[in-house]
Specification:
The protein has 2 domains: 80 residues, no CATH class; 91 residues, no CATH class. The C terminus is likely disordered. The two termini are 22 Å apart. The chain has 10 helices and no strands. It is an all-alpha fold.
Length: 194
């Protein structure tokens, strides 16, 4: 592994500071509207990412996030550390005594939390007008993709919302968290071929 340059470290610190500042600013704004702060944090990532900043102001995006694979991996590694720390904090806050008695209820919530979005996503993809499809003759593949995308849960986001709303130590919050964990356990990880 090659040594990092001072420029790469400076860019990492600048990117991190910008992301944290924007995330904190939008999280506080969401809190004022009575929403979970994670919505503002996700919105910050969306606004500073390729979807908005990269599309509307590509030169500014490349100035902030230059096309440097090492720098991108550094930022990605920092993001993974954040997710791991969030899950660790969630685990430390979880009341295991309450969680143990929720097996059947959590399983039912998990099943319905997978089946209903799966069916709804497939139906949406199947009956969507052909003008919205990139390949109208590949409707089945699109419908299956949409079904799976709708059925996936994100335990770190669920955990952050429960922490923000102070529901993690309550029975309802633990039921939601347990169902999310079961949902993620059901999903199959398919390695991509290169």
């Amino acid at each position: 592994m090659q040594n990092l340059t001072a420029k790469q470290v400076l860019y990492l610190l600048g990117q991190f500071a910008l992301l944290v500042f924007t995330g904190r600013l939008l999280a506080d704004l969401m809190r004022r509207f009575g929403q979970a702060t994670v919505i503002g944090e996700l919105l910050a990532g969306l606004l500073l990412g390729q979807s908005v900043l990269g599309h509307l102001f590509p030169a500014a995006f490349l100035l902030i996030f230059p096309n440097d694979p090492t720098g991108a991996h550094l930022l990605e590694g920092l993001a993974w550390i954040g997710v791991i720390m969030l899950l660790l904090c969630t685990g430390l806050e979880t009341e295991l005594e309450i969680l143990r008695g929720m097996g059947r209820a959590a399983a039912l919530v998990s099943i319905f939390g997978i089946v209903i979005p799966l069916a709804g996503g497939f139906a949406l993809g199947w009956w969507m007008p052909a003008v919205y499809l990139a390949a109208p003759n590949g409707r089945l593949i699109f419908s299956l993709f949409l079904a799976i995308a709708m059925a996936i849960s994100a335990v770190p986001v669920i955990a952050k919302i429960l922490i923000d709303l102070d529901l993690l130590r309550r029975e309802l919050g633990l039921l939601i968290l347990a169902a999310g964990i079961l949902d993620d356990s059901v999903q199959v990880d398919c390695p991509t071929r290169r």
